Amino acid sequence: xxxxxxxxxxxxxxxxxxxxxxxxxxxxxxxxxxxxxxxxxxxxxxxxxxxxxxxxxxxxxxxxxxxxxxxxxxxxxxxxxxxxxxxxxxxxxxxxxxxxxxxxxxxxxxxxxxxxxxxxxxxxxxxxxxxxxxxxxxxxxxxxxxxxxxxxxxxxxxxxxxxxxxxxxxxxxxxxxxxxxxxxxxxxxxxxxxxxxxxxxxxxxxxxxxxxxxxxxxxxxxxxxxxxxxxxxxxxxxxxxxxxxxxxxxxxxxxxxxxxxxxxxxxxxxxxxxxxxxxxxxxxxxxxxxxxxxxxxxxxxxxxxxxxxxxxxxxxxxxxxxxxxxxxxxxxxxxxxxxxxxxxxxxxxxxxxxxxxxxxxxxxxxxxxxxxxxxxxxxxxxxxxxxxxxxxxxxxxxxxxxxxxxxxxxxxxxxxxxxxxxxxxxxxxxxxxxxxxxxxxxxxxxxxxxxxxxxxxxxxxxxxxxxxxxxxxxxxx
Length: 477
Ligand code: 4AD
Ligand code: MG
Description:
Blueprint: H1 6-11, E1 18-29, E2 33-37, E3 45-48, H2 56-60, E4 67-76, E5 84-95, H3 111-116, H4 125-147, E6 151-152, E7 158-159, E8 171-172, E9 199-201, H5 206-216, E10 218-226, E11 239-248, H6 252-273, H7 275-290, H8 302-310, E12 315-318, H9 319-327, H10 330-333, H11 350-361, E13 365-371, E14 387-395, E15 399-406, H12 411-420, H13 429-436, E16 442-448, H14 449-457
Helix pairs in contact: 4-6, 4-7, 4-14, 6-8
Bound molecules: 4-amino-1,4-dioxobutan-2-aminium adenosine-5'-monophosphate (4AD) and magnesium ion (MG).
Protein backbone atom coordinates (compact mmCIF):
# COMPACT_ATOMS: atom_id res chain seq x y z
CA UNK A 1 0.00 0.00 0.00
CA UNK A 2 1.28 3.49 -0.85
CA UNK A 3 1.56 6.18 1.79
CA UNK A 4 -0.96 8.99 1.78
CA UNK A 5 0.23 12.32 3.14
CA UNK A 6 -1.83 13.95 5.86
CA UNK A 7 -2.52 16.86 3.51
CA UNK A 8 -3.91 14.45 0.90
CA UNK A 9 -6.00 12.70 3.56
CA UNK A 10 -7.73 16.01 4.30
CA UNK A 11 -8.00 17.19 0.73
CA UNK A 12 -8.64 14.04 -1.31
CA UNK A 13 -9.35 10.92 0.70
CA UNK A 14 -12.90 9.54 0.93
CA UNK A 15 -14.73 8.17 3.93
CA UNK A 16 -14.30 4.44 4.49
CA UNK A 17 -11.15 4.44 2.38
CA UNK A 18 -8.30 2.19 3.58
CA UNK A 19 -5.15 4.28 4.03
CA UNK A 20 -1.55 4.06 5.13
CA UNK A 21 0.04 7.15 6.70
CA UNK A 22 3.48 7.78 8.16
CA UNK A 23 4.47 10.61 10.46
CA UNK A 24 5.56 11.70 13.90
CA UNK A 25 3.51 11.71 17.07
CA UNK A 26 2.71 15.22 18.26
CA UNK A 27 0.62 14.14 21.22
CA UNK A 28 -0.93 10.94 22.53
CA UNK A 29 -4.00 11.28 24.74
CA UNK A 30 -6.00 8.85 26.85
CA UNK A 31 -4.04 5.89 25.47
CA UNK A 32 -6.25 6.29 22.44
CA UNK A 33 -5.81 9.46 20.33
CA UNK A 34 -2.62 10.05 18.38
CA UNK A 35 -2.16 13.46 16.78
CA UNK A 36 0.03 12.58 13.81
CA UNK A 37 1.97 15.16 11.81
CA UNK A 38 3.99 14.44 8.69
CA UNK A 39 4.99 17.98 7.72
CA UNK A 40 2.79 18.09 4.62
CA UNK A 41 0.43 20.44 6.43
CA UNK A 42 0.08 22.29 9.69
CA UNK A 43 -2.82 20.05 10.65
CA UNK A 44 -2.45 16.80 12.53
CA UNK A 45 -4.39 13.70 11.62
CA UNK A 46 -6.23 12.27 14.56
CA UNK A 47 -5.59 8.52 14.62
CA UNK A 48 -7.64 6.41 17.00
CA UNK A 49 -6.16 3.20 18.37
CA UNK A 50 -7.94 0.44 20.20
CA UNK A 51 -5.61 0.23 23.20
CA UNK A 52 -7.16 -2.99 24.42
CA UNK A 53 -6.09 -4.69 21.23
CA UNK A 54 -2.55 -3.29 21.42
CA UNK A 55 0.33 -4.95 23.17
CA UNK A 56 1.22 -2.96 26.33
CA UNK A 57 4.87 -2.66 25.27
CA UNK A 58 3.87 -1.21 21.92
CA UNK A 59 1.52 1.23 23.61
CA UNK A 60 4.36 2.58 25.74
CA UNK A 61 6.38 3.37 22.62
CA UNK A 62 3.77 5.78 21.26
CA UNK A 63 5.36 8.94 22.62
CA UNK A 64 5.80 12.50 21.35
CA UNK A 65 8.33 12.51 18.52
CA UNK A 66 8.16 8.80 17.67
CA UNK A 67 7.89 7.89 13.97
CA UNK A 68 4.91 5.70 13.12
CA UNK A 69 3.41 3.85 10.18
CA UNK A 70 -0.33 3.41 10.53
CA UNK A 71 -2.92 1.60 8.49
CA UNK A 72 -6.59 2.09 8.95
CA UNK A 73 -9.95 3.32 7.74
CA UNK A 74 -10.93 6.94 7.35
CA UNK A 75 -14.11 7.63 9.28
CA UNK A 76 -16.15 10.62 10.30
CA UNK A 77 -14.81 11.93 13.59
CA UNK A 78 -16.86 11.47 16.71
CA UNK A 79 -15.01 14.21 18.56
CA UNK A 80 -14.89 17.92 17.93
CA UNK A 81 -12.00 19.71 16.25
CA UNK A 82 -11.70 17.52 13.18
CA UNK A 83 -13.98 16.31 10.43
CA UNK A 84 -12.34 12.92 9.88
CA UNK A 85 -10.06 10.57 11.76
CA UNK A 86 -8.19 7.37 11.07
CA UNK A 87 -9.51 4.25 12.75
CA UNK A 88 -6.22 2.41 13.12
CA UNK A 89 -6.02 -1.29 12.27
CA UNK A 90 -2.25 -1.78 12.35
CA UNK A 91 0.41 0.30 14.03
CA UNK A 92 4.15 0.07 13.59
CA UNK A 93 6.72 2.14 15.49
CA UNK A 94 9.43 3.00 12.97
CA UNK A 95 11.55 5.01 15.37
CA UNK A 96 11.23 5.59 19.11
CA UNK A 97 11.71 8.96 20.83
CA UNK A 98 12.61 8.43 24.47
CA UNK A 99 10.34 10.87 26.37
CA UNK A 100 13.05 11.47 28.97
CA UNK A 101 15.48 12.61 26.30
CA UNK A 102 13.49 14.01 23.34
CA UNK A 103 13.77 17.81 23.71
CA UNK A 104 10.66 18.89 21.77
CA UNK A 105 7.75 18.27 24.10
CA UNK A 106 4.17 19.44 23.59
CA UNK A 107 4.57 22.69 25.52
CA UNK A 108 5.80 26.22 24.82
CA UNK A 109 9.51 26.34 24.07
CA UNK A 110 11.41 29.61 23.77
CA UNK A 111 12.91 30.59 20.41
CA UNK A 112 16.35 30.61 22.06
CA UNK A 113 15.95 27.03 23.23
CA UNK A 114 14.72 25.93 19.81
CA UNK A 115 17.73 27.56 18.12
CA UNK A 116 19.91 25.16 20.10
CA UNK A 117 17.76 22.33 18.74
CA UNK A 118 17.80 23.58 15.15
CA UNK A 119 17.91 20.01 13.81
CA UNK A 120 14.62 19.19 15.58
CA UNK A 121 12.77 22.51 15.63
CA UNK A 122 11.19 21.97 12.22
CA UNK A 123 8.96 19.44 13.99
CA UNK A 124 7.14 22.26 15.76
CA UNK A 125 4.06 24.01 14.37
CA UNK A 126 5.84 27.36 14.14
CA UNK A 127 8.89 26.18 12.24
CA UNK A 128 6.84 23.88 10.03
CA UNK A 129 4.65 26.85 9.06
CA UNK A 130 7.62 29.19 8.50
CA UNK A 131 9.43 26.68 6.30
CA UNK A 132 6.36 25.87 4.20
CA UNK A 133 5.75 29.59 3.63
CA UNK A 134 9.43 30.01 2.76
CA UNK A 135 9.28 27.21 0.23
CA UNK A 136 6.17 28.73 -1.38
CA UNK A 137 7.88 32.13 -1.56
CA UNK A 138 10.88 30.55 -3.25
CA UNK A 139 8.63 28.90 -5.84
CA UNK A 140 6.81 32.21 -6.42
CA UNK A 141 10.14 33.97 -7.02
CA UNK A 142 11.04 31.55 -9.81
CA UNK A 143 7.53 31.67 -11.20
CA UNK A 144 7.46 35.47 -11.29
CA UNK A 145 10.73 35.84 -13.12
CA UNK A 146 10.24 32.92 -15.49
CA UNK A 147 6.82 34.16 -16.54
CA UNK A 148 8.19 37.66 -17.06
CA UNK A 149 10.91 36.67 -19.53
CA UNK A 150 13.85 36.40 -17.13
CA UNK A 151 16.47 33.66 -17.26
CA UNK A 152 17.81 32.11 -14.08
CA UNK A 153 21.56 32.53 -13.86
CA UNK A 154 24.01 30.97 -11.39
CA UNK A 155 26.66 33.40 -10.22
CA UNK A 156 29.89 31.90 -8.90
CA UNK A 157 30.12 31.48 -5.13
CA UNK A 158 33.90 31.67 -5.06
CA UNK A 159 34.99 34.99 -6.44
CA UNK A 160 38.01 37.20 -6.87
CA UNK A 161 36.06 40.46 -6.68
CA UNK A 162 34.38 42.39 -3.86
CA UNK A 163 31.16 43.63 -5.46
CA UNK A 164 30.06 45.89 -2.64
CA UNK A 165 33.54 47.18 -1.91
CA UNK A 166 32.86 46.82 1.79
CA UNK A 167 35.64 44.31 2.31
CA UNK A 168 33.60 42.10 4.63
CA UNK A 169 34.44 38.82 2.95
CA UNK A 170 35.27 35.25 3.97
CA UNK A 171 38.56 34.10 2.46
CA UNK A 172 38.67 30.81 0.56
CA UNK A 173 42.06 29.17 0.72
CA UNK A 174 43.84 25.83 0.84
CA UNK A 175 47.04 27.33 2.22
CA UNK A 176 48.30 25.99 5.54
CA UNK A 177 47.45 28.69 8.11
CA UNK A 178 50.46 27.70 10.21
CA UNK A 179 53.08 28.21 7.51
CA UNK A 180 51.70 29.95 4.42
CA UNK A 181 54.13 30.67 1.58
CA UNK A 182 55.45 34.22 1.85
CA UNK A 183 56.39 36.76 -0.80
CA UNK A 184 59.66 38.67 -0.62
CA UNK A 185 57.96 41.50 1.27
CA UNK A 186 56.76 39.08 3.97
CA UNK A 187 53.08 39.02 2.99
CA UNK A 188 51.23 35.78 2.19
CA UNK A 189 51.86 34.72 -1.41
CA UNK A 190 48.40 33.90 -2.73
CA UNK A 191 49.99 33.08 -6.08
CA UNK A 192 50.72 29.74 -4.42
CA UNK A 193 47.09 29.29 -3.34
CA UNK A 194 44.61 26.95 -5.04
CA UNK A 195 43.36 29.52 -7.56
CA UNK A 196 46.69 31.31 -7.91
CA UNK A 197 45.14 34.45 -6.40
CA UNK A 198 43.22 35.69 -3.40
CA UNK A 199 39.63 34.42 -3.45
CA UNK A 200 36.58 34.89 -1.23
CA UNK A 201 32.99 33.80 -0.83
CA UNK A 202 30.80 36.14 -2.83
CA UNK A 203 28.89 39.00 -1.18
CA UNK A 204 26.69 39.44 -4.25
CA UNK A 205 26.26 37.92 -7.72
CA UNK A 206 25.57 41.32 -9.22
CA UNK A 207 28.73 42.01 -11.21
CA UNK A 208 28.55 38.64 -12.94
CA UNK A 209 24.78 39.06 -13.45
CA UNK A 210 25.50 42.33 -15.25
CA UNK A 211 27.66 40.42 -17.74
CA UNK A 212 24.85 37.98 -18.40
CA UNK A 213 22.14 40.66 -18.63
CA UNK A 214 24.20 42.23 -21.42
CA UNK A 215 23.63 39.07 -23.48
CA UNK A 216 20.43 37.45 -22.24
CA UNK A 217 18.60 40.73 -21.58
CA UNK A 218 16.92 39.87 -18.28
CA UNK A 219 18.48 37.48 -15.77
CA UNK A 220 18.15 36.76 -12.06
CA UNK A 221 20.23 34.93 -9.49
CA UNK A 222 18.84 33.26 -6.39
CA UNK A 223 21.69 31.91 -4.34
CA UNK A 224 23.69 32.06 -1.14
CA UNK A 225 25.79 35.13 -0.35
CA UNK A 226 28.19 35.70 2.52
CA UNK A 227 29.13 38.65 4.67
CA UNK A 228 31.76 38.62 7.37
CA UNK A 229 30.34 41.68 9.12
CA UNK A 230 30.20 41.42 12.88
CA UNK A 231 26.50 42.34 13.10
CA UNK A 232 24.62 40.59 15.87
CA UNK A 233 21.17 41.91 15.01
CA UNK A 234 17.81 40.32 14.37
CA UNK A 235 18.19 41.14 10.65
CA UNK A 236 21.74 40.03 9.81
CA UNK A 237 23.14 36.65 8.85
CA UNK A 238 26.69 35.80 7.77
CA UNK A 239 25.20 33.44 5.16
CA UNK A 240 21.94 34.46 3.51
CA UNK A 241 20.20 33.99 0.21
CA UNK A 242 19.78 36.84 -2.21
CA UNK A 243 17.60 37.29 -5.26
CA UNK A 244 19.27 39.55 -7.79
CA UNK A 245 17.55 40.44 -11.03
CA UNK A 246 19.58 42.40 -13.59
CA UNK A 247 18.02 43.93 -16.70
CA UNK A 248 19.48 45.46 -19.84
CA UNK A 249 17.74 48.63 -21.05
CA UNK A 250 16.05 49.31 -17.68
CA UNK A 251 16.50 52.69 -16.03
CA UNK A 252 15.98 53.38 -12.33
CA UNK A 253 12.23 54.00 -12.71
CA UNK A 254 11.72 50.70 -14.52
CA UNK A 255 13.86 49.03 -11.83
CA UNK A 256 11.66 50.41 -9.03
CA UNK A 257 8.49 49.40 -10.89
CA UNK A 258 9.82 45.85 -11.25
CA UNK A 259 10.88 45.55 -7.60
CA UNK A 260 7.51 46.71 -6.36
CA UNK A 261 5.53 44.48 -8.70
CA UNK A 262 7.76 41.49 -7.83
CA UNK A 263 7.42 41.86 -4.06
CA UNK A 264 3.66 42.33 -4.30
CA UNK A 265 3.38 39.27 -6.53
CA UNK A 266 5.25 36.88 -4.22
CA UNK A 267 3.40 38.11 -1.13
CA UNK A 268 0.07 37.73 -2.94
CA UNK A 269 1.14 34.21 -3.86
CA UNK A 270 1.62 33.15 -0.25
CA UNK A 271 -1.59 34.88 0.84
CA UNK A 272 -3.35 32.70 -1.69
CA UNK A 273 -1.44 29.43 -1.19
CA UNK A 274 -0.43 29.41 2.48
CA UNK A 275 -3.60 30.63 4.17
CA UNK A 276 -3.58 28.00 6.93
CA UNK A 277 0.05 28.53 7.87
CA UNK A 278 -0.34 32.32 7.80
CA UNK A 279 -3.43 32.14 10.01
CA UNK A 280 -1.46 30.03 12.46
CA UNK A 281 1.48 32.46 12.41
CA UNK A 282 -0.89 35.40 12.86
CA UNK A 283 -2.45 33.78 15.90
CA UNK A 284 0.96 32.98 17.30
CA UNK A 285 1.95 36.64 16.94
CA UNK A 286 -1.22 37.86 18.59
CA UNK A 287 -0.50 35.60 21.57
CA UNK A 288 3.06 36.90 21.70
CA UNK A 289 1.84 40.50 21.50
CA UNK A 290 -0.34 40.06 24.55
CA UNK A 291 2.73 39.69 26.71
CA UNK A 292 4.30 42.93 25.39
CA UNK A 293 3.76 46.46 26.69
CA UNK A 294 1.13 48.37 24.69
CA UNK A 295 3.66 50.69 23.03
CA UNK A 296 5.61 47.81 21.50
CA UNK A 297 2.62 46.07 20.00
CA UNK A 298 2.35 46.26 16.24
CA UNK A 299 -0.88 47.74 15.03
CA UNK A 300 -1.79 45.24 12.35
CA UNK A 301 -2.39 41.50 12.42
CA UNK A 302 -0.08 39.61 10.04
CA UNK A 303 -2.46 38.93 7.17
CA UNK A 304 -3.81 42.47 7.19
CA UNK A 305 -0.23 43.74 7.12
CA UNK A 306 0.58 41.58 4.07
CA UNK A 307 -2.57 42.79 2.28
CA UNK A 308 -1.66 46.35 3.15
CA UNK A 309 1.62 45.89 1.26
CA UNK A 310 0.16 44.04 -1.73
CA UNK A 311 -2.79 46.38 -2.21
CA UNK A 312 -1.26 49.83 -2.38
CA UNK A 313 1.69 51.43 -4.13
CA UNK A 314 4.95 51.94 -2.23
CA UNK A 315 5.82 55.53 -1.43
CA UNK A 316 8.74 56.84 -3.54
CA UNK A 317 10.90 59.53 -1.98
CA UNK A 318 14.32 60.95 -2.86
CA UNK A 319 17.12 60.86 -0.30
CA UNK A 320 16.98 64.66 -0.17
CA UNK A 321 13.26 64.69 0.66
CA UNK A 322 13.79 61.98 3.28
CA UNK A 323 16.71 63.92 4.72
CA UNK A 324 14.51 67.03 5.17
CA UNK A 325 11.74 64.98 6.80
CA UNK A 326 14.23 63.42 9.19
CA UNK A 327 16.05 66.65 9.93
CA UNK A 328 12.80 68.33 10.94
CA UNK A 329 11.45 65.31 12.78
CA UNK A 330 10.66 65.34 16.47
CA UNK A 331 13.16 62.62 17.48
CA UNK A 332 15.92 64.49 15.62
CA UNK A 333 15.08 67.84 17.21
CA UNK A 334 14.82 66.24 20.63
CA UNK A 335 18.13 64.45 19.99
CA UNK A 336 16.57 61.04 20.36
CA UNK A 337 18.35 59.52 17.36
CA UNK A 338 21.66 57.87 18.19
CA UNK A 339 22.97 59.26 14.88
CA UNK A 340 21.79 62.87 14.46
CA UNK A 341 20.62 64.05 11.04
CA UNK A 342 22.51 67.30 10.57
CA UNK A 343 24.32 67.57 7.23
CA UNK A 344 23.12 66.44 3.82
CA UNK A 345 25.07 63.35 2.81
CA UNK A 346 24.92 61.40 6.09
CA UNK A 347 24.18 57.72 5.75
CA UNK A 348 20.77 56.69 7.05
CA UNK A 349 20.77 54.23 9.94
CA UNK A 350 18.04 51.76 10.67
CA UNK A 351 16.55 54.10 13.33
CA UNK A 352 15.99 56.67 10.54
CA UNK A 353 14.65 54.13 8.08
CA UNK A 354 12.21 52.85 10.66
CA UNK A 355 11.07 56.35 11.51
CA UNK A 356 10.29 57.03 7.85
CA UNK A 357 8.45 53.76 7.30
CA UNK A 358 6.74 53.19 10.62
CA UNK A 359 6.09 56.71 11.88
CA UNK A 360 6.09 59.14 8.98
CA UNK A 361 4.76 57.32 5.90
CA UNK A 362 3.37 54.21 7.54
CA UNK A 363 3.85 52.12 4.38
CA UNK A 364 6.71 50.59 2.40
CA UNK A 365 9.02 53.31 1.09
CA UNK A 366 11.42 53.39 -1.86
CA UNK A 367 14.22 55.85 -1.22
CA UNK A 368 16.17 56.82 -4.33
CA UNK A 369 18.87 59.19 -5.60
CA UNK A 370 21.28 58.80 -2.69
CA UNK A 371 24.48 60.81 -2.21
CA UNK A 372 27.20 59.20 -4.32
CA UNK A 373 29.59 59.17 -1.37
CA UNK A 374 27.63 56.64 0.67
CA UNK A 375 26.94 54.16 -2.14
CA UNK A 376 28.91 51.57 -4.13
CA UNK A 377 31.16 52.42 -7.08
CA UNK A 378 28.97 50.89 -9.77
CA UNK A 379 25.93 53.15 -9.36
CA UNK A 380 24.98 55.58 -12.15
CA UNK A 381 25.97 59.17 -11.41
CA UNK A 382 23.15 61.69 -11.80
CA UNK A 383 23.50 64.92 -13.78
CA UNK A 384 23.91 66.86 -10.52
CA UNK A 385 27.25 65.12 -9.99
CA UNK A 386 26.35 64.57 -6.31
CA UNK A 387 23.79 61.78 -6.27
CA UNK A 388 23.58 58.32 -7.79
CA UNK A 389 20.62 56.36 -9.13
CA UNK A 390 20.40 54.09 -6.13
CA UNK A 391 17.22 52.80 -4.55
CA UNK A 392 16.54 51.05 -1.27
CA UNK A 393 13.18 49.59 -0.34
CA UNK A 394 12.31 49.94 3.33
CA UNK A 395 9.71 47.77 5.02
CA UNK A 396 7.88 48.13 8.30
CA UNK A 397 9.51 46.10 11.06
CA UNK A 398 12.36 45.05 8.77
CA UNK A 399 14.05 48.18 7.49
CA UNK A 400 16.00 47.68 4.27
CA UNK A 401 14.69 44.72 2.30
CA UNK A 402 16.00 45.67 -1.17
CA UNK A 403 19.09 47.50 -2.33
CA UNK A 404 19.53 48.27 -6.01
CA UNK A 405 20.48 50.82 -8.63
CA UNK A 406 20.84 51.80 -12.23
CA UNK A 407 24.44 50.90 -13.13
CA UNK A 408 27.09 53.25 -14.44
CA UNK A 409 27.30 52.28 -18.11
CA UNK A 410 29.76 55.03 -19.20
CA UNK A 411 33.33 53.73 -19.27
CA UNK A 412 35.09 56.98 -18.42
CA UNK A 413 32.73 57.91 -15.58
CA UNK A 414 33.05 54.41 -14.12
CA UNK A 415 36.85 54.49 -14.31
CA UNK A 416 36.93 57.86 -12.58
CA UNK A 417 34.66 56.55 -9.83
CA UNK A 418 36.79 53.44 -9.34
CA UNK A 419 39.85 55.60 -9.02
CA UNK A 420 38.17 57.73 -6.34
CA UNK A 421 37.03 54.70 -4.36
CA UNK A 422 40.27 52.77 -4.93
CA UNK A 423 38.63 49.87 -6.71
CA UNK A 424 41.28 47.96 -8.63
CA UNK A 425 40.78 48.34 -12.39
CA UNK A 426 43.03 45.36 -13.12
CA UNK A 427 40.88 43.08 -10.96
CA UNK A 428 37.71 44.20 -12.75
CA UNK A 429 39.05 44.34 -16.32
CA UNK A 430 36.16 42.20 -17.50
CA UNK A 431 33.59 44.46 -15.81
CA UNK A 432 35.09 47.42 -17.67
CA UNK A 433 34.93 45.40 -20.92
CA UNK A 434 31.13 45.40 -20.55
CA UNK A 435 31.35 49.21 -20.94
CA UNK A 436 33.64 48.95 -23.95
CA UNK A 437 31.59 46.53 -26.01
CA UNK A 438 27.90 47.23 -26.57
CA UNK A 439 27.35 49.12 -23.34
CA UNK A 440 23.77 50.14 -22.53
CA UNK A 441 21.60 51.47 -19.74
CA UNK A 442 20.94 48.66 -17.27
CA UNK A 443 19.70 48.16 -13.72
CA UNK A 444 19.08 45.61 -11.03
CA UNK A 445 18.53 45.03 -7.35
CA UNK A 446 19.11 42.56 -4.56
CA UNK A 447 16.41 41.30 -2.24
CA UNK A 448 17.46 39.57 0.98
CA UNK A 449 15.34 36.44 0.89
CA UNK A 450 15.34 35.79 4.65
CA UNK A 451 14.24 39.36 5.32
CA UNK A 452 11.32 38.79 2.96
CA UNK A 453 10.48 35.56 4.81
CA UNK A 454 10.68 37.45 8.10
CA UNK A 455 8.18 39.97 6.82
CA UNK A 456 5.83 37.32 5.38
CA UNK A 457 5.83 35.19 8.54
CA UNK A 458 6.13 37.94 11.15
CA UNK A 459 9.13 36.21 12.76
CA UNK A 460 11.08 38.66 14.89
CA UNK A 461 14.54 37.17 14.43
CA UNK A 462 16.15 36.31 11.09
CA UNK A 463 17.79 33.27 12.76
CA UNK A 464 14.34 31.72 12.92
CA UNK A 465 13.63 31.83 9.19
CA UNK A 466 16.72 29.94 7.98
CA UNK A 467 17.19 26.28 8.92
CA UNK A 468 20.74 26.49 10.26
CA UNK A 469 21.74 30.12 10.81
CA UNK A 470 25.34 31.26 10.49
CA UNK A 471 26.14 34.28 12.65
CA UNK A 472 29.25 35.52 14.47
CA UNK A 473 30.54 32.78 16.82
CA UNK A 474 27.90 30.36 15.58
CA UNK A 475 28.14 27.68 12.90
CA UNK A 476 26.70 24.69 14.77
CA UNK A 477 25.04 21.97 12.68
O1 4AD B 1 22.09 46.31 -0.21
P1 4AD B 1 22.95 45.13 -0.57
O2 4AD B 1 24.30 45.05 0.06
O3 4AD B 1 23.04 45.15 -2.15
C1 4AD B 1 23.83 44.37 -2.93
O4 4AD B 1 24.49 43.43 -2.55
C2 4AD B 1 23.68 44.67 -4.40
N1 4AD B 1 24.85 44.12 -5.09
C3 4AD B 1 22.40 44.09 -4.91
C4 4AD B 1 22.16 44.33 -6.37
O5 4AD B 1 21.97 45.46 -6.76
N2 4AD B 1 22.15 43.29 -7.18
O6 4AD B 1 22.16 43.79 -0.22
C5 4AD B 1 20.90 43.53 -0.80
C6 4AD B 1 19.93 43.03 0.24
C7 4AD B 1 19.66 44.00 1.38
O7 4AD B 1 18.70 44.97 1.02
C8 4AD B 1 19.15 43.06 2.45
O8 4AD B 1 17.77 42.74 2.25
C9 4AD B 1 19.96 41.81 2.21
O9 4AD B 1 20.44 41.88 0.88
N3 4AD B 1 21.09 41.70 3.13
C10 4AD B 1 21.14 40.86 4.18
N4 4AD B 1 20.26 39.95 4.63
C11 4AD B 1 20.62 39.23 5.72
N5 4AD B 1 21.80 39.34 6.36
C12 4AD B 1 22.73 40.24 5.92
N6 4AD B 1 23.91 40.34 6.54
C13 4AD B 1 22.42 41.05 4.78
N7 4AD B 1 23.08 42.00 4.10
C14 4AD B 1 22.26 42.39 3.10
MG1 MG C 1 22.09 47.96 0.99
